[in-house]
UniProtKB/TrEMBL annotation:
Major subcellular site: membrane
Residue ranges of domain Calcium-activated potassium channel BK alpha subunit in the record: 23-73
Protein name as annotated: Calcium-activated potassium channel slowpoke
Single GO cellular component term: postsynaptic membrane
Keywords (A to Z) from UniProt: Ion channel, Ion transport, Membrane, Potassium, Potassium channel, Potassium transport, Transmembrane, Transmembrane helix, Transport
Pfam families registered for this protein in UniProt: BK_channel_a (PF03493)
Membrane topology type: Multi-pass membrane protein
Domain of life of the organism encoding this protein: Eukaryota
GO molecular function: large conductance calcium-activated potassium channel activity
Compartments where located: Membrane
Length: 108
C-alpha cells in the first residue's frame, strides 16, 4: 500500500487535509478517483511578480516552483461591478492582479 498525504497551502496555514491509502489491488481509475478526493480548490491573489505574464507562463511557474496547479483567473471589469472566471485563458492575455484559482495539493 502506498500512503499519500495531501497538503493544503493557503496564505494562512499549511496542514494535512486528507490521507488516502492506495492499493495495487484496486483498479487504476479508483485509485485516481481517491487521489482526486483529496484535492481542494482555493483562491489566492498572486504576487505582483506574476503581473504581465501570460497564463501559460504563470501556470508553469506555479507548477514547477510552488507545486500548485493553476487552473483559471478571475477577470474583473474596471469598475469592479462584474467578474468572470476564465479557465485556461489564451496566452495572449497578460495577468492582471486578481484572484487566481488553483488546486492546493502536492503535484507529483
Amino acid at each position: 500500500e502506498k500512503l499519500l498525504a495531501f497538503l493544503s497551502n493557503s496564505k494562512e496555514n499549511a496542514f494535512i487535509t486528507d490521507v488516502v491509502i492506495l492499493s495495487p489491488d484496486t483498479p487504476k481509475w479508483q485509485n485516481d478517483y481517491l487521489c482526486g478526493t483529496g484535492m481542494e480548490m482555493y483562491t489566492e491573489t498572486l504576487s505582483t511578480s506574476f503581473v504581465g505574464m501570460s497564463f501559460p507562463q504563470a501556470a508553469e511557474l506555479c507548477f514547477v516552483k510552488l507545486k500548485l496547479l493553476l487552473l483559471a483567473i478571475e477577470v474583473i471589469n474596471d469598475d469592479g461591478s462584474d467578474s468572470k472566471i476564465s479557465i485556461n485563458p489564451k496566452s495572449k492575455r497578460n495577468l492582471p492582479r486578481t484572484p487566481r484559482f488553483f488546486y492546493c495539493t502536492i503535484c507529483r
